[in-house]
C-alpha cells in the first residue's frame, strides 16, 4: 500500500487538499473555506478524499499545512484581548510607529488601529541601558500593580517589551515571573524571546503581533490536531512558514509570527523547485487567487527574502519608502508584492464615471454573480466568463457549475449599460484594468528594483493567475510563461517540493560593541 | 528670552483641528477617547456633551442627552457652520 503525504491550504475563498504518494499519484479536493471554522474544512476535505478513493487514515504519512488564520486575525482585528507592559515613557511606541506613511500628503489616510488599545498599554519605571547595565532597577511593587490592572481588565494575553531588553532581559523575566505567579495560565510573551534586537518599535510591534495571534493560532492548531485524531490520523502536522521553510505545529503555536504569510510562501518555493527542474533560474512568480494577487522574484534560482514586512498594508513591498500602511513584523519572509486584485474583485463605476476594479472582493460568499450563490455585484471572474476565458461548465474540474447568463445580465445592467459600451467591450475593460493593477505588483519586484522583466520567465499559478498571464506578459514584453499543472492547487503541491522539506529556524541577536581591528574578524562568531 | 540652567520652557500646542460637530461624535468613541486618556472626563462633558462614568466605563445615556441638548441650545444655531466658497444666500452682505 502506498503512503500519501497530504497538503492542506486555506485561502480566503477555497480550501485545497492534495494527496500525493511517492509514485506521483495524486488526489485533490477543492472545497469552500469555512470562515467560522477553518479546521473543519480541512477535516471534511480529507474525509471526502477518503470516501472518494478508499484510502484510510493509515495511508497518511504527514500533513503539510499553509494557513491564513494568523493574518486574518490581524486584518480583521479579531486577535486576543492583549495587554502590553513597557518602559515608562514608551507607552505610545505602537501609536507613533516609525513615521512612515504609505502616501505622503494624503490627509484622509488613517493609521490602522493599534492591536493593543492605549488603556491596555501600561508602563513600569525601569531602565537598562544599551550595554545591558541596570541604570534604574525595576520597581517590583509597581510591576505587580500593573500586572493586576491588566488581569482586572480581563486580558487574554500579555506582551512584555522593555527598552533595551535585547541587551539584558532581566527585568522582562522579573515581570513575566510576576504574571506567572498571579495567573499561571496567562499567555505571556517577552520581547527578548520573540526578537532580541535593537529598535523598540520593530521589537514591540513584533512581540505584540505574536501575542495577539497566539491564542487563536494555538486554539486553531489544537482543534485541527483534535480533528485529525478523531479521524485516527496520527501523522505529524507541519506548518509552512513565511520564510518558505517548515516548522512543527508546536513551534507554530508558540511563535505564530513565523507563519503569518504561510500560504503565499509555498507557491514561491514551488516555483523555485519547478524552475530548477526546467532549467529556469530567473523567474517572476505570479499568484492570483480570489482576493489578492502576489508577485515575487526568483533570481539565480534563489528566492528573495526581506527581513521585515507589513501585515495588512494594502500593496506591500520590501521597499522602505512605501511601507507604513500595515503592522510591522520584523521576521524574515519571502519578499512578495501584493495587490488587492483577484477573481472576486468587484467591478464598479466610480464617482468620476470610470471603470474600477477592487479592492473590495466578493470572496467565497456571496461570491461572483456566476456562482449564483447570492452575489449581486459584478466581479473579475464574471468578466472572464463573459469573455469566454473561463469555461462555465468546467470550473474546479466541473464541480462548480457557473451561471453565465446571470453574469451577463447584471454586468450589462450595472456596467456596460451606464457606460454606453457593449457587454464584451465593458468586460474586456474590466479585464484590462485588473491586469494593469496586477502588473504593479510585478513591476514592484522587478522594474522598481532595477530588474528588467523581459529577462524573466513569468510563472503563473493560483486559481486566476494563468487567465491573466499572457495579457500581462505581453504588456511587459516577457518572452515565456510557465503554467504548472493544476495551477489552482499549486500552492498545495508546492508543499511537496524537496525545498520545502527544509525546516528553517531563524535566530537574531543584536550586538553593540565598537568595531576595532582586534574584533573585526571574530565579531558575531561566538 | 534668556534661559538659565534649571529653567523650564513649557510650550503647549493645540491637539489638532476637529472634523465635524463634536455633538455628533459617537458617544462610545468619546468614551474610548477618555479611557485612552486622549481627552479628560471634563472635556467629554463640556465639548462633546457625553457623560462618562469612569468607575464602570459606561455612558450615562440620559445625562448625555440632556448635556447635548443644553449645549446645542446655548449655541443659538443648529447646523455646523461651514466655509462657503460662494455666497448663494447673500450671507456676507
Instruction: Report mean pLDDT of chain A, rounded to a whole number.
Output: 87
Arrangement of strands in the largest sheet of chain B: 1-2
Instruction: Supply the helix-strand structural class of chain A.
Output: alpha/beta
Order of strands side by side in the largest beta sheet of chain A? 3-2-1-4-11-12
**Cα end-to-end separation of chain A:** 49 Å
Note the total helix count of chain A: 14
* Low-confidence parts of chain A: 316-321
Quickly give the structural class of chain B: mainly alpha
- What can be said about the biggest beta sheet of chain B? 2 strands, antiparallel
The amount of beta strand of chain B, in percent, is under 5%
Helix content of chain A: 25-40%
For the sheet with most strands of chain A, the description reads: 6 strands, mixed
Oligomer: heterodimer
The total strand number of chain B stands at 2
Q: Mean pLDDT of chain B, nearest integer?
A: 85
Poorly predicted ranges of chain B (pLDDT <50, ≥5 residues)?
Answer: none
Determine Rg of chain B (CA atoms, Å).
19 Å
Strand-and-helix sequence of chain B, N→C? HHEEH
Helix count from the secondary structure assignment of chain B: 3
Largest interface: A-B, 3 and 5 residues
Amino acid at each position: 500500500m502506498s503512503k500519501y503525504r497530504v497538503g492542506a491550504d486555506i485561502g480566503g475563498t477555497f480550501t485545497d487538499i492534495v494527496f500525493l504518494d511517492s509514485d506521483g499519484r495524486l488526489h485533490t479536493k477543492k472545497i469552500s473555506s469555512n470562515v467560522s471554522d477553518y479546521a473543519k474544512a480541512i477535516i471534511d476535505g480529507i474525509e471526502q478524499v477518503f470516501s472518494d478513493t478508499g484510502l484510510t487514515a493509515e495511508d497518511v504519512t504527514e500533513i503539510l499545512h499553509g494557513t491564513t488564520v494568523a493574518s486574518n486575525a490581524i486584518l480583521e482585528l479579531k486577535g486576543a484581548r492583549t495587554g502590553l507592559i513597557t518602559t515608562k515613557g514608551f507607552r505610545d511606541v505602537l501609536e507613533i510607529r516609525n513615521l512612515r506613511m504609505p502616501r505622503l500628503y494624503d490627509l484622509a489616510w488613517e493609521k490602522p488601529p493599534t492591536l493593543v488599545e492605549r488603556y491596555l498599554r501600561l508602563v513600569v519605571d525601569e531602565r537598562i541601558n544599551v550595554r545591558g547595565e541596570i541604570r534604574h532597577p525595576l520597581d517590583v511593587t509597581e510591576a505587580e500593580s500593573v500586572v493586576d490592572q491588566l488581569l482586572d481588565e480581563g486580558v487574554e494575553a500579555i506582551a512584555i517589551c522593555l527598552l533595551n531588553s535585547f541587551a539584558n532581559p532581566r527585568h522582562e523575566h522579573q515581570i513575566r515571573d510576576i504574571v506567572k505567579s498571579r495567573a499561571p495560565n496567562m499567555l505571556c510573551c517577552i520581547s527578548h524571546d520573540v526578537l532580541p534586537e535593537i529598535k523598540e518599535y520593530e521589537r514591540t510591534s513584533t512581540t505584540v503581533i505574536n501575542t495577539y495571534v497566539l491564542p487563536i493560532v494555538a486554539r486553531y492548531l489544537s482543534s485541527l490536531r483534535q480533528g485529525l485524531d478523531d479521524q485516527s490520523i496520527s501523522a505529524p502536522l507541519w506548518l509552512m512558514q513565511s520564510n518558505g521553510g517548515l516548522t512543527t505545529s508546536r513551534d507554530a503555536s508558540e511563535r505564530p509570527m513565523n507563519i503569518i504569510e504561510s500560504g503565499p510562501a509555498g507557491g514561491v518555493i514551488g516555483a523555485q523547485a519547478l524552475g530548477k527542474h526546467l532549467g529556469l533560474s530567473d523567474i517572476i512568480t505570479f499568484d492570483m487567487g480570489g482576493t489578492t494577487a502576489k508577485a515575487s522574484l526568483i533570481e539565480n534560482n534563489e528566492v528573495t527574502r526581506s527581513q521585515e514586512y507589513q501585515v495588512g498594508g494594502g500593496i506591500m513591498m520590501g521597499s522602505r519608502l512605501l511601507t507604513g500602511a500595515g503592522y510591522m513584523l520584523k521576521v524574515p519572509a519571502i519578499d512578495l508584492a501584493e495587490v488587492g486584485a483577484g477573481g472576486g474583485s468587484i467591478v464598479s463605476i466610480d464617482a468620476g464615471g470610470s471603470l474600477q476594479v477592487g479592492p473590495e472582493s466578493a470572496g467565497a460568499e456571496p461570491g461572483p454573480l456566476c456562482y449564483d450563490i447570492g452575489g449581486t455585484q459584478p466581479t473579475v471572474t464574471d468578466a472572464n466568463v463573459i469573455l469566454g476565458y473561463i469555461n462555465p461548465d468546467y470550473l474546479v474540474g466541473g464541480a462548480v457549475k457557473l451561471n453565465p447568463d446571470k453574469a451577463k445580465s447584471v454586468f450589462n445592467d450595472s456596467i456596460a449599460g451606464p457606460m454606453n459600451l457593449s457587454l464584451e467591450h465593458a468586460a474586456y475593460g474590466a479585464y484590462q484594468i485588473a491586469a494593469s493593477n496586477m502588473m504593479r505588483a510585478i513591476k514592484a519586484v522587478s522594474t522598481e528594483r532595477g530588474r528588467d522583466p523581459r529577462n524573466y520567465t513569468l510563472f503563473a499559478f493560483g486559481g486566476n493567475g494563468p487567465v491573466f498571464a499572457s495579457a500581462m506578459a505581453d504588456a511587459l514584453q516577457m518572452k515565456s510563461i510557465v503554467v504548472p499543472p493544476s495551477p489552482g492547487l499549486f500552492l498545495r503541491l508546492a508543499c511537496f517540493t524537496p525545498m520545502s522539506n527544509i525546516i528553517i529556524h531563524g535566530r537574531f541577536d543584536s550586538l553593540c560593541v565598537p568595531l576595532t581591528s582586534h574584533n573585526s574578524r571574530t565579531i558575531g562568531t561566538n | 528670552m534668556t534661559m538659565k540652567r534649571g529653567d523650564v520652557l513649557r510650550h503647549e500646542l493645540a491637539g489638532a483641528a476637529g472634523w465635524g460637530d463634536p455633538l455628533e461624535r459617537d458617544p462610545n468613541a468619546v468614551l474610548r477617547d477618555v479611557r485612552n486618556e486622549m481627552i479628560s472626563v471634563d472635556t467629554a462633558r463640556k465639548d462633546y456633551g457625553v457623560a462618562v462614568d469612569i468607575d464602570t466605563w459606561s455612558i450615562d445615556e440620559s445625562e448625555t442627552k440632556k448635556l447635548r441638548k443644553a449645549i446645542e441650545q446655548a449655541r443659538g444655531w443648529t447646523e455646523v457652520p461651514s466655509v462657503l466658497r460662494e455666497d448663494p444666500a447673500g450671507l456676507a452682505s
